[in-house]
Amino acid sequence: MKKVYIILSIVLLTNFCFGQGANEAHKKNNVHEVICTKVIQTTNYTYLQVNEKDNLIWVAVPKMEAQKDEAYYFVGGMEMGPFKSKELDRTFDQLLFLGEITKKTNSEKAEETTHKAEVKINKKDIKIEASDACISIKELYANKEKYANKEVTIKGQVTKFSKKIMSRNWIHIQDGTNHEGDFDLTITSNEEVNIDDIVVITGKLTLDKDFGYGYFYKVIIEEGKVIK
User: Fold this and answer.
1) Which of 76, 80, 120, 203 shows a CA-CA span of 20 to 30 A to 16?
2) Do 35 and 69 form a contact (C-beta atoms < 8 A)?
């Protein structure tokens, strides 16, 4: 699913997940208990059709192992619809984006395991020529406080693109550099790009951005504009 590489998807993607953990949610009686009736796997996301009190709904979560007839538990979520998945070539009339879902075993104690909103990002073999007009991803992460809340310009290759998640597009770029394992940069934008495009983007650098629903970025460029 290319809409939610981020989420997701994206998926992305979404105010996408929940604020509180499952235990806290149980205390406040906000937990949804559902039975999975269908499972559709995509590259980065898993779509589940679930039954809650005879009401069938579709939910999307970061890719996970899931099985039909299993019980799942979640809190919150963001409703979107109609939602078009390009990877599936399918439009969901209504879809609930989740970033966290809890699966309980069939044991009497119902031991919980929690699936976090983590989309794996792979480092690609990319080499972007340095430019005086742009800073590198390594420089950005190494000196993030210096650039915080300032407009920055960066050049990189698009590795993921998710369209219209939380009313914005999500762009991931790499330039071949990294700082202590940080090699991928996320950018939100109203503009569209293609995977493998070499782009120059300018936008405001924000630190410790929490979109809620489990989606937290220690470094992100917001309102990015593609200038090349």
Assistant:
1) 203
2) yes
What residue segments make up the domains of the chain, in order of their start?
A: 22-115, 137-226
pTM beyond 0.85: the answer is no
Question: Do 22-115 and 137-226 share a fold?
Answer: yes
What is the rounded distance in angstroms from the CA atom of residue 201 to the CA atom of residue 152? 8
Integer Cα distance of 176 and 182 in angstroms? 11
Q: Give the number of C-alpha atoms closer than 13 A to the C-alpha of residue 145, restricted to the C-beta side.
A: 0
Return the CATH number of the domain spanning residue range 22-115. 2.40.50
For 163-190, the pLDDT digits (tens) are 877 778 999 999 999 999 999 999 999 9
Q: How big is the chain by its Cα radius of gyration, in Å?
A: 19
Task: Please give the single-letter amino acid code of residue 6.
Answer: I
CATH of 137-226, one of 3.40.50.1110, 2.40.50.140, 3.30.420.40, 3.30.70.100: 2.40.50.140
Q: How far apart are CA 19 and CA 16, in angstroms?
A: 10
Q: List b or e across 94-124, with b for residues whose CB sees 16 or more CB atoms inside 10 angstroms.
A: ebbbbbbbbbbeeeeeeeeeebebebeeeee
- The arithmetic mean of pLDDT across residues 129-147, rounded, is 93
| Region class of 165: left (phi > 0), else alpha (psi between -120 and 50), else beta | beta
Distance CA 199, CA 22 (A): 40
Identify the band that residue 107 occupies on the pLDDT scale cut at 50, 70 and 90.
very low
With a CB cutoff of 8 Å and minimum separation 6, the contacts of 210 are: 216, 217
